[in-house]
């Protein structure tokens, strides 16, 4: 035990006087105590505590990537922290079931006292979105307005300052784009890859054309989708095409970052790619869990209010459903399967490359 | 112990020779064994076993409602069975995480051997949807075609026969519509209710109009939504209006059934309404879990294939996302919060009514 | 919307300044910030918030049972609240996985600053145990001492006062014991039951004696267990025998309460027993979840510390494992399966009884 | 798409005729169909399917370790597979909740038809235990007898043959023991470590002695526990002492393996240790989940049968509780926290060592 440590007691350490004294029921204040308001408050306070923890982890990860160079040892802890983020997100998703033990009628018994409070006013949630990479330009129009109108001046400044800082998305994009491997290598991976994917796409087209189950309407739709996939592939091999697609919103990652990520995913079993692969997978999962949270949240609000307006004076579930898909951040990782080849179609890495991807020791 | 019972052994009882001998890897057949194909098969087989169990429960519930009269004792077991359905659904939703331990690249190593198999060919899943109430007329157009084109003749006949039978939705609708209470009572609940809801709606409108946070665009949208809610309320009090809304697809339940359900939800603490309330809540939950399953399933397919076509020769995740919301069955229960009043705005039930809603014994 | 309601804002409503300002890291105070201490604090604060919510629900349930008579309408809400308790418990159990994302080495980086804080000092957890029914006389010896030694004077007074009040266990016991049905009925259920269970027990004995798989040691053990089950059955039919078994700690429920609970479980499909059956099942589940929590908690502490002493200066996981089984409260409900008969061996209830168990209305 | 691939249909591919035709209810055979027997069968069949998948993963991992040398690339896939095992185990644990939707009374309606079937007859579960490392010598006495008596000749031969093969425990032990690092290094880690742990232990002793909350009985117990921890530490530094402790059952890993594991855990952030650390953590988690499964399973059996004997003719839950703790396999990893030092007490690795632990590339 270290010397000169003052005794530390459970209740003081956790500041339980603050934590457990922070539930002031509005319904009690107005003389009509509603039993379920306690649940409503506690559930939201727990969410805010988890948000605080998520921000604690994300900020540490951002700080790591915000350095001149990321050391190998640090990547271990980055992945560890992102895995913790995911586990907390899963718990937060399950927590929606707790809120749903409140019936709509029970909610109505205190809803009128809460005007105009609204979950959209959670600054920490906005910090989370912005830190991950959901900056103003990516918000849907409706969202943009609601978002800034509802803020206090202090909060608006805080968030605007945060928007100026590099987000995790931007930092990871740069880190991937900088990966030295692809540029120094004289192994012609991308030529090989191009040939193999051309073949794969042609096979897919043939499958659609021969598929007896499809109606003509469906076939046309499928071929149109195929055409768009074809164009995305063209972007991989042509920087200008890629920039066009980027401007159209078909991609968010830079061209270099996308290629690095693709290479890592293709050769993920190489030891040197193990941590980067885990990083990409974790970010994909974080995005998926956040999407799921929005979706379940929207359903819960609908179940609680139907088409009634919420306490913030707008019908929350429409808004929430709209943002479910539009606010995705690492969607390029999520969609990356589009571009993957099966192991058997990939060229074996030359020995010289392999050696550079392994550990020195063994 | 009963006499004359032959001994029963674990392996025989569970037919483990069949169950554990039913994993034939296509990749092995073609000489390129893919480790993850086992997972793919086992996960799907487990889903089919759960589907069988869900059908076992649903069919029992349907049989109960398909009688001249439903006895009180039977309602207990209906609710018990529906709660089991929900718990299985939750497990099935979590099971998607198991499939996601397969990387897209691992899937690619055997995907080509599976053409044209597709999860859309699960007859049991279609039986489930039809038994719940998703009949042909409610399927989206795209779905209708895919659905019937892909079936074998036997399966098509089986499903078409099932469509002729009453679904759980139809049976519950009739059961609710027949509930005697509302018709025999001379307690003027609906007059009272109308007055109270008018007030609530006017308050909501005022809130929208006074909400300083809304932009003009948002306010117009909110008022439009409010107007549509207003019209739905009008339907409650006017049978013709209701029929119009029903034809427009704004409701699916019959007018009488909706009113009964609403009454039950408003007075759910009355003992006689306890089981009916649990029934409605359970059906709402089943619908929510099914919706969640579709949504998570769609995300999983997207993560596995990106925008590539699936083994069935079409891009599954578009289709799946489209059906996520459109294939909802008990949506009226889900949206019922729209019409609920807080307890404090409800008239106290007259003693005579209360007595009839309580138990004789106490 | 109600008039004269002051505006209520999200951050103020949830007292986020208190909640989010309550994380003071000891490691920071001593100049060696440990990243994971934030997780440690937040996880414990979330637990304390859930404890507060559980106490809120349990106290409301206790108040209901603490009245002269429990109305039917109130039973609905009792069951609703206990179901919420269970769902929160399940989330709390899953939350242990979050703590386990902290490695033992990470914990070591701040453990020394926490002496002598200890989870055993959570007053709310003790309130929970006492409110449920874990009073001093049921604690194991080791527990008794640790329990009271570590408390501040105020906390000791608070808990001692709570021990004087009736617990949920005691109130439910009384409520069950008072159930009128069994005493007024001239239907000789228990005679019938005695005959049927004698037969069942004799069958079981025969099965043990004929079981070719058992070694002699095992057979002796099984017959000894059977004998003890036989004695418990005798207690059902003889008040004095029951009192003896109660004094030996084989039962905790009063004789009358146990018989009522057994009758309810046997005829649970009768509408009048639906809510009481749900109540008993919910209390069983609460006990199971609490047991699971202790067990997982003990494993987590062992994983974090091995056989090292904890910050409270004792090796927590030994203590926790000891209390896992010994601190069970509603164990009689859990073990009740011992006494159940299959439906087919039960007498049909006479019409006169059935009518009294149904609803008047139908 | 590959050429010459025959079409593959969903139902055929999954052998649904076998899978869905494998539910033969005993209660139906004897003319008294019990609704819940379907659930009982399906739940067990799903468990057996998951067991098959777990064996598929474990056998692949065992094959990898059973080679002359484990390549880095292979370690990636070992960890990936073990993570999948854990996720399946978590689902299996949650699945116990499904079985618990069957009430004890419902189970009684078909229990008598199942004699003498018993879950203990699951060969796959035994294969799993043996493959992980639970060989005959580690089974508790009671278990040993039941285990072999109940088997058919074929199954006994199969399991006895499996016992001759190296288990995952043995293979991982050897792999750890062979790790070159510790032997070739002239960096005197263990001298340093010894000094630091001596200090830590003395501090702990002082904490116990000064802890005012402990009664004298408790203090004696704590000091006895401390003494035993002290002896375990001595084992680390003295091969003979270690062998003694091994023979007493205090350790299961070989001395060399334990030291390697400890070094890996202490310096887990080094890139070369990332995968080994993940491996150790995954095995710890597998053991924890298996333990949890036994515990929840024992509780479920108790809830279903009370102290009644099971269909196998013995009281299952006693047996199950006994094996919960005794059948642990990777307990040394679980307890390893005992020996860990905080990062701040560890010597910085010399540059020469660090370089060998990093990647060549960067």
Shape of chain A: globular
* Spans of at least 5 consecutive residues with low confidence of chain A: none
Major sheet description of chain A: none
Q: What structural category do the secondary elements of chain A indicate?
A: mainly alpha
The CATH architecture assignment of chain A turns out to be Up-down Bundle
CATH topology of chain A: Methane Monooxygenase Hydroxylase, Chain G, domain 1
β-strand percent of chain A reads: under 5%
> What is the multimeric organization of the chains shown?
homotetramer
Mean pLDDT of chain A: 87
Counting structural domains of chain A, the number is 1
Distance between the termini of chain A: 39 Å
Helix content bin of chain A: 55-70%
Given the structure, what is the number of helices of chain A?
Answer: 19
Of all chain pairs, the largest interface belongs to: A-B, 65 and 65 residues
EC number (chains A, B, C, D): 1.13.11.11
Organism (chains A, B, C, D): Alteromonas stellipolaris
Subunit structure (chains A, B, C, D): Homotetramer.
Pfam family, one (chains A, B, C, D): Trp_dioxygenase
Structure characterization notes:
Chains A, B, C, D: Its EC number is 1.13.11.11. Four copies of one chain form a homotetramer. Chain A has 362 residues and is an all-alpha fold. Chain A has a single domain (10-357), classed as Methane Monooxygenase Hydroxylase, Chain G, domain 1 (Up-down Bundle). Helix content of chain A is 68%, strand content 0%. The first copy, chain A, contains 19 helices and no strands. The two termini of chain A are 39 Å apart. The mean pLDDT of chain A is 87. Chains in contact: A-B, A-C, A-D, B-C, B-D, C-D.
């Amino acid at each position: 035990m270290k010397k000169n440590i003052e005794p530390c007691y459970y209740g003081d350490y956790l500041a339980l006087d603050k934590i457990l004294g922070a539930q002031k029921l509005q319904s009690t204040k107005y003389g009509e105590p509603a039993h379920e308001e306690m649940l409503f408050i506690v559930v939201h306070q727990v969410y805010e505590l988890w948000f605080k923890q998520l921000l604690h982890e994300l900020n540490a990860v951002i700080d790591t990537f915000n350095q001149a160079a990321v050391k190998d040892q640090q990547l271990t802890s980055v992945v560890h922290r992102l895995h913790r983020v995911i586990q907390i997100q899963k718990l937060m998703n399950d927590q929606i079931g707790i809120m749903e033990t409140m019936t709509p009628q029970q909610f109505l018994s205190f809803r009128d006292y809460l005007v105009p409070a609204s979950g959209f006013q959670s600054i920490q949630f906005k910090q989370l979105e912005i830190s991950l990479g959901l900056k103003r330009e990516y918000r849907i129009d409706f969202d943009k307005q609601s978002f800034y109108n509802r803020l206090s001046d202090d909060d608006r400044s805080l968030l605007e300052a945060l928007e100026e800082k590099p987000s995790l998305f931007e930092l990871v994009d740069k880190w991937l784009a900088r990966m030295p491997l692809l540029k120094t290598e004289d192994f012609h991976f991308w030529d090989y890859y191009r040939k193999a994917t051309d073949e794969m796409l042609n096979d897919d087209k043939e499958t659609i054309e021969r598929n007896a189950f499809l109606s003509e309407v469906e076939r046309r739709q499928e071929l149109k989708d195929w055409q768009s996939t074809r164009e995305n592939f063209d972007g991989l091999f042509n920087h200008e095409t890629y920039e066009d697609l980027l401007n159209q919103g078909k991609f968010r990652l830079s061209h270099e970052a996308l290629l690095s990520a693709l290479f890592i995913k293709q050769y993920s079993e190489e030891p040197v790619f193990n941590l980067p692969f885990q990083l990409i997978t974790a970010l994909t999962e974080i995005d998926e869990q956040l999407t799921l949270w929005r979706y379940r949240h929207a359903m819960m609000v609908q179940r609680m209010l139907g088409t009634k307006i919420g306490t913030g004076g707008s019908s929350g579930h429409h808004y929430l459903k709209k943002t479910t898909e539009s606010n995705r951040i690492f969607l390029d990782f999520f969609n990356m399967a589009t571009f993957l080849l099966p192991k058997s179609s990939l060229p074996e890495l030359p020995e010289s490359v392999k050696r550079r991807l392994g550990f020195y020791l063994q």
